[in-house]
Design brief:
alpha+beta, 5-stranded antiparallel beta sheet, 11 strands, globular, 3 helices, 19% helix, 152 residues, two-stranded antiparallel ribbon
Length: 152
Amino acid sequence: MGDGINHMGEPMCWYAMSVPYNRVLKVKGMLDTEGIETFVPMRHEVRIVRGKKVRLYIPAVSNLLFVHTTDSRLRLFKQTTTFLQYLVHRVDGVSRKVIVPDVQMEQFIRVSRTEDDQLIYLKPEEINLSKGTRVRILGGVFDGVEGVYVKV
């Protein structure tokens, strides 16, 4: 994951980004080519394709991409990729970029990269939690992983 600072002294952050039109994997590939670290949470899904069951590996949350880089490098990339957008949240009436702290991102990647078929992604309406609720996983391979519930 690195030390969080690039060679110019600018901090590296995990930016939560939106990529519309099902272009997440395309943009991920473009960023990978530039040497910019990315993460897309993926999941397996069984679909019927031409009458046959096919197991696909697809983004778990459509349009969601995490990018680990500096603000200036990301802004430079965005100049040529206009459909890559920052996810924002409002703080005191001001829109701020969603930045995920390194420790939380490392835990999220650890949980998301598991091949455990029992790992499920829930829609906000499927659980009775409000934004900002602290959560901790109890039991299993992720015992003790903590976080804060957010709705994207």
